[in-house]
Amino acid sequence: MNIRIATEEDTPAIGQMWERLAAYHNTLDSALPPAARGGGKVYAKRLATRMNDPLTRVFIAEQDDKLVGYVLAVIIDVIPDMFVQENSGFLADIFVEDAYRRHGIGRVLVETVRAWMVENNVRHFEWYVAEHNSAGRKFWEAIGGRAVLTRMRANTQQEES
Fold first, then answer.
1. Which of 43, 93, 110, 123 is the most exposed place for a label (fewest CB within 10 A)?
2. Strand order of the sheet with strand 66-77?
3. pLDDT, tens digit, for every residue of 106-146?
4. Under DSSP, is residue 16 helix (H, G, I), strand (E, B) or coil?
5. CB 73: neighbour CB atoms within 10 A?
6. Could you tell me the fold of the domain covering 2-142?
7. First to last CA, the chain
8. Residue 88 in contact with residue 78, Cβ under 8 Å?
9. Which secondary-structure segment (H or E) carries 29?
10. Neighbour-count burial for 86-108, b at 16+ CB within 10 Å, e otherwise
11. Mean pLDDT within 58-67
12. Which sequence spans correspond to the domains of the chain?
């Protein structure tokens, strides 16, 4: 397995992976939105514009000369006049193709992000995990993740019974 920084040439394949990620989340919980038609292409274009951003990294995993996973991470800062200034990281997306899961690729991608964060003096990073994604929750707990906030949702209209 090879981990490297993604290039603009990788973005179409990453966009397709993102569509599978969105579809997977939607099957877990219909409250999570599916990808819009062409959403993967839009995602790929947006990634391409961020390739030279020093606060953004996209790492890809390759095996057998095939792109099998990716992770998107960013360094963010809090509003300095409201909070004590501390850079933090956000792991926006991570995906590993089904056939390559449970082989440590996700863990290596996260460790690569962690190393990049350390190089940039980031003390912690965060991410979202779908409430109904029990496998994902177990993965994050296994790498030392812990819940710090719970994101909740309510409908604005009462649903009919």
1. 123
2. 2-5, 56-63, 66-77, 87-96, 125-126
3. 999 999 999 999 999 998 899 999 888 999 999 999 988 99
4. helix
5. 25
6. Aminopeptidase (3.40.630)
7. 51
8. yes
9. none
10. ebebebebbbbbeebeeeebbeb
11. 95
12. 2-142
